[in-house]
Amino acid sequence: MLKVFFGEMPQALYSTSLYFDNTYFDGWLDDEFAQKMIRSVDKATVLSGHAVESKALGIIPPTKLSGGLKTLLLIYNEPNKIFNASTCGDNCAKWLLKIPKVLDRDVTVNLRHIMDFGDGNFEINILNDDTVVHNMNELVQHAVKFIGE
Protein backbone atom coordinates (compact mmCIF):
# COMPACT_ATOMS: atom_id res chain seq x y z
CA MET A 1 0.00 0.00 0.00
CA LEU A 2 1.09 3.57 -0.59
CA LYS A 3 1.61 5.38 2.69
CA VAL A 4 1.71 9.17 2.66
CA PHE A 5 2.82 11.63 5.30
CA PHE A 6 1.59 15.15 4.55
CA GLY A 7 3.61 18.19 5.61
CA GLU A 8 7.10 18.55 7.01
CA MET A 9 8.87 15.24 7.57
CA PRO A 10 12.49 15.63 8.74
CA GLN A 11 13.56 12.11 7.71
CA ALA A 12 12.35 12.54 4.11
CA LEU A 13 14.91 13.20 1.38
CA TYR A 14 13.83 16.48 -0.24
CA SER A 15 16.42 17.15 -2.93
CA THR A 16 15.43 14.12 -4.96
CA SER A 17 16.89 15.28 -8.25
CA LEU A 18 20.31 15.96 -6.74
CA TYR A 19 20.17 12.72 -4.77
CA PHE A 20 19.27 10.76 -7.92
CA ASP A 21 22.07 12.35 -9.96
CA ASN A 22 24.60 11.15 -7.41
CA THR A 23 23.25 7.72 -6.49
CA TYR A 24 21.42 6.05 -9.39
CA PHE A 25 22.80 2.92 -11.01
CA ASP A 26 22.75 2.31 -14.76
CA GLY A 27 21.01 -1.02 -14.11
CA TRP A 28 17.94 0.81 -12.81
CA LEU A 29 17.06 1.66 -16.41
CA ASP A 30 17.21 -1.98 -17.52
CA ASP A 31 14.12 -2.80 -15.47
CA GLU A 32 10.90 -3.24 -17.48
CA PHE A 33 8.71 -1.42 -14.94
CA ALA A 34 11.16 1.50 -14.82
CA GLN A 35 11.08 1.70 -18.60
CA LYS A 36 7.27 1.86 -18.55
CA MET A 37 7.42 4.77 -16.10
CA ILE A 38 10.00 6.53 -18.29
CA ARG A 39 7.82 6.13 -21.40
CA SER A 40 4.72 7.31 -19.58
CA VAL A 41 6.06 10.25 -17.59
CA ASP A 42 8.82 11.66 -19.80
CA LYS A 43 7.71 10.25 -23.17
CA ALA A 44 11.19 8.78 -23.49
CA THR A 45 12.77 5.47 -24.46
CA VAL A 46 15.71 3.88 -22.68
CA LEU A 47 18.60 3.24 -25.06
CA SER A 48 21.03 2.06 -22.37
CA GLY A 49 21.88 2.69 -18.75
CA HIS A 50 23.64 5.85 -19.94
CA ALA A 51 21.22 7.21 -22.53
CA VAL A 52 17.53 7.94 -22.92
CA GLU A 53 15.87 9.23 -26.06
CA SER A 54 13.39 11.95 -25.19
CA LYS A 55 10.88 13.30 -27.69
CA ALA A 56 11.40 16.76 -26.25
CA LEU A 57 15.16 16.76 -25.62
CA GLY A 58 16.69 14.15 -27.93
CA ILE A 59 19.27 11.75 -26.52
CA ILE A 60 20.03 12.63 -22.92
CA PRO A 61 21.77 11.08 -19.91
CA PRO A 62 19.51 9.81 -17.09
CA THR A 63 20.51 12.85 -15.02
CA LYS A 64 18.44 14.99 -17.43
CA LEU A 65 15.19 13.08 -16.81
CA SER A 66 12.39 15.05 -15.16
CA GLY A 67 12.44 15.57 -11.41
CA GLY A 68 9.22 13.63 -10.99
CA LEU A 69 10.55 10.63 -12.86
CA LYS A 70 13.80 10.71 -10.89
CA THR A 71 11.73 10.62 -7.71
CA LEU A 72 9.67 7.66 -8.95
CA LEU A 73 12.84 5.77 -9.84
CA LEU A 74 14.26 6.47 -6.38
CA ILE A 75 11.07 5.31 -4.65
CA TYR A 76 11.05 2.16 -6.77
CA ASN A 77 14.72 1.33 -6.31
CA GLU A 78 15.20 2.47 -2.72
CA PRO A 79 11.85 1.66 -1.06
CA ASN A 80 13.30 1.73 2.45
CA LYS A 81 13.93 5.46 2.16
CA ILE A 82 11.29 8.19 2.26
CA PHE A 83 11.34 10.68 -0.59
CA ASN A 84 9.62 14.00 -1.18
CA ALA A 85 7.01 13.07 -3.78
CA SER A 86 5.92 16.70 -4.13
CA THR A 87 8.59 16.89 -6.82
CA CYS A 88 6.20 14.72 -8.86
CA GLY A 89 3.41 16.07 -11.00
CA ASP A 90 -0.02 14.50 -11.14
CA ASN A 91 1.19 12.43 -14.12
CA CYS A 92 3.22 10.44 -11.57
CA ALA A 93 0.27 9.64 -9.29
CA LYS A 94 -0.73 6.37 -10.94
CA TRP A 95 2.87 5.18 -10.71
CA LEU A 96 3.03 6.01 -7.00
CA LEU A 97 0.03 3.72 -6.56
CA LYS A 98 1.57 0.97 -8.71
CA ILE A 99 5.03 0.87 -7.12
CA PRO A 100 3.92 -0.81 -3.85
CA LYS A 101 1.99 -3.42 -5.85
CA VAL A 102 4.95 -4.20 -8.12
CA LEU A 103 7.32 -4.39 -5.14
CA ASP A 104 4.71 -6.29 -3.08
CA ARG A 105 5.40 -4.11 -0.05
CA ASP A 106 4.30 -0.88 1.56
CA VAL A 107 6.05 2.28 0.36
CA THR A 108 6.08 5.57 2.24
CA VAL A 109 6.38 8.99 0.61
CA ASN A 110 6.17 12.55 1.85
CA LEU A 111 3.82 15.05 0.19
CA ARG A 112 3.48 18.77 0.83
CA HIS A 113 0.54 19.17 -1.51
CA ILE A 114 -2.57 17.22 -2.42
CA MET A 115 -1.76 15.15 -5.48
CA ASP A 116 -4.55 14.22 -7.88
CA PHE A 117 -4.82 10.43 -7.86
CA GLY A 118 -7.73 10.47 -10.28
CA ASP A 119 -11.39 9.56 -10.25
CA GLY A 120 -11.00 5.86 -9.47
CA ASN A 121 -10.75 3.96 -6.24
CA PHE A 122 -7.43 3.36 -4.50
CA GLU A 123 -6.01 2.72 -1.06
CA ILE A 124 -3.68 5.22 0.54
CA ASN A 125 -2.75 5.19 4.21
CA ILE A 126 -2.43 8.76 5.49
CA LEU A 127 0.17 8.36 8.21
CA ASN A 128 -0.59 11.69 9.91
CA ASP A 129 -3.78 10.21 11.40
CA ASP A 130 -3.41 6.56 10.30
CA THR A 131 -6.47 6.76 8.06
CA VAL A 132 -6.92 4.68 4.93
CA VAL A 133 -8.65 6.61 2.15
CA HIS A 134 -10.21 5.14 -0.97
CA ASN A 135 -10.84 8.06 -3.33
CA MET A 136 -9.96 11.71 -3.90
CA ASN A 137 -12.88 12.99 -1.84
CA GLU A 138 -11.69 11.12 1.23
CA LEU A 139 -8.05 12.03 0.53
CA VAL A 140 -8.78 15.74 0.33
CA GLN A 141 -10.92 15.70 3.49
CA HIS A 142 -8.09 14.19 5.50
CA ALA A 143 -5.02 15.68 3.83
CA VAL A 144 -6.18 19.31 4.01
CA LYS A 145 -5.75 19.15 7.78
CA PHE A 146 -2.03 18.50 7.43
CA ILE A 147 -0.97 20.69 4.53
CA GLY A 148 0.92 23.78 5.64
CA GLU A 149 1.63 22.58 9.17
Report on the structure:
With 149 residues, the chain is an alpha/beta fold. It has a domain at 2-23 and 65-143. The chain is built from five helices and eight strands, in the order βααβββαβαβββα. The strands form two sheets. It has a five-stranded mixed beta sheet with strand order 5-6-1-7-8. The protein is globular and about 45 Å long. It starts with a strand and ends in a 6-residue tail after the last helix. The mean pLDDT is 96.
Search tags:
about 150 residues, 3-stranded antiparallel sheet, about 35% helix
At a glance:
The protein is an alpha/beta fold and 149 residues long. It has a domain at 2-23 and 65-143.
Task: Write the topology of this structure.
Elements: E1 2-6, H1 16-23, H2 32-42, E2 44-48, E3 51-54, E4 58-60, H3 67-77, E5 83-84, H4 93-103, E6 107-111, E7 124-126, E8 131-133, H5 136-143
Helix pairs in contact: 1-3, 2-3
Query: Looking across the biggest beta sheet, what order are the strands in?
Result: 5-6-1-7-8
- Low-confidence spans: pLDDT under 50, at least 5 residues? none
Strand content: 15-25%
Radius of gyration: 15 Å
Number of helices: 5
What distance lies between the first and last C-alpha atoms, to the nearest angstrom?
Answer: 24 Å
The largest sheet, given as strand count, sense and whether it forms a barrel, is:
5 strands, mixed
Helix fraction bin = 25-40%
Following the backbone from N to C, one meets helices and strands in this order, namely EHHEEEHEHEEEH
Helix and strand composition category:
alpha/beta
Number of strands: 8
